[in-house]
Amino acid sequence: MIRAGIIGATGYAGNEIVRLLLGHKETEIVWYGSRSYIDKPYADVYRNFFKLVDARCMDDNMEALSKEADVIFTATPQGLCASLVNEEILSGTKVIDLSADFRIKDVAKYEKWYGIEHKTPQYVKEAVYGLPEIYREDIKKARLIANPGCYPTCSTLSIYPLLKEGLIDPHTIIIDAKSGTSGAGRGAKVDNLFCEVNESIKAYGVAGHRHTPEIEDQLSYACGQEVLISFTPHLVPMNRGILVTAYASLTEGATEEKLRAAYKKYYKDENFVRVLPPDVCPQTKWVEGSNYVDVNFKIDGRTNRVIMMGAIDNLVKGAAGQAVQNMNLLFGLPEDEGLRTVPMYP
Q: Which of 99, 125, 242, 320 could form a disulfide with 16 if both were Cys (CB 3.0 to 4.6 A apart)?
């Protein structure tokens, strides 16, 4: 059995890791870390685990945890994992970090966008970006995984095949994205109160959202040149889900057949990426509670542009599910172990 520890187990992403690992045949959770609820029964924090989890919450002592766990998930705010990880920990266990601490390879860029000093920049180059559909072989050999952000996961997988194959102009990409409120975390914030969110939709982080450089980095790697995007996220009054609608100009000679062939080339063998039939648009309700990504595209012949669309559950493929997918790769398990959940509906 893989012994797993979770630091930040009482946040939404941490709670989702617990839910998925309880259905994982090869894993035992040995540490439910939560600085806010030390010694409180975990099932008192999340009643959905009543009579399913008897453990109490523990602290965020990563060094102690590394002596008990084969893998540590850090579902914590930016900066915490970077402040805790060290060579002794990484020599004894695998770390899958769900924060942004190791996603961006340019430390100065990370510090600029996140407004904090990086405490362990020596590990940034080593960390592997945990998007299995692109970096699967590197993930298998890693000891530190930078689990991607939710918006970057959906955006990158929606755009990647067409950009990689040179079918779109990388300088024309615009991304419009919408997320449920769980993406903002469980902390009490006025902007996330029911009366503030219900019956409304709003843009936020306009021209400055912190996921922008992460998306730009991944798209730049895909096409081999620097990519700058216009990215605008929106908050919608639902619990879960992200819908990405991205736009780009087609390159000369790009056709419907070539675009569809590109998606097939990169995703035909992927368990969790579902390329939808022509004219079927992704919807968040068809991926809710699952690790699936639904993608599709539509050519606008009038403007010579393509609309690329993707939908994920932000807490699963956008966070916890992808983390478990990465864990499976690290330990040589079937990639879908613990992730075979059929999307929930209604």
A: 320
Q: What does pTM read for this prediction?
A: 0.97
Q: Checking phi first, is residue 33 left (phi over 0); if not, alpha (psi -120 to 50) or beta?
A: beta
Residue numbers in the chain where pLDDT is lower than 70? none
SS3 253: coil
CA pair distance 337, 308, nearest whole angstrom = 29
Is 281 known to be catalytic? no
Judge contact between 305 and 247, C-beta under 8 A: yes
DSSP state of 216: H
Sheet holding 27-33, edge to edge: 27-33, 2-7, 71-74, 94-97, 144-146, 128-129
User: Which residues contact residue 331 at a Cβ distance below 8 angstroms, ignoring those fewer than 6 apart?
Assistant: 2, 26, 70, 71
pLDDT in tens, 208-237: 999 999 999 999 999 999 999 999 999 999
- Give dist(CA 16, CA 235) in Å, integer: 20
Q: Report yes or no: 308 and 243 within 8 Å, Cβ to Cβ.
A: no
The active-site residue, picked from 81, 150, 154, 223, is: 150
Domains and CATH numbers, the chain: 2-126 (3.40.50.720), 151-314 (3.30.360.10)
pLDDT in tens, 37-61: 999 999 999 999 999 999 999 999 9
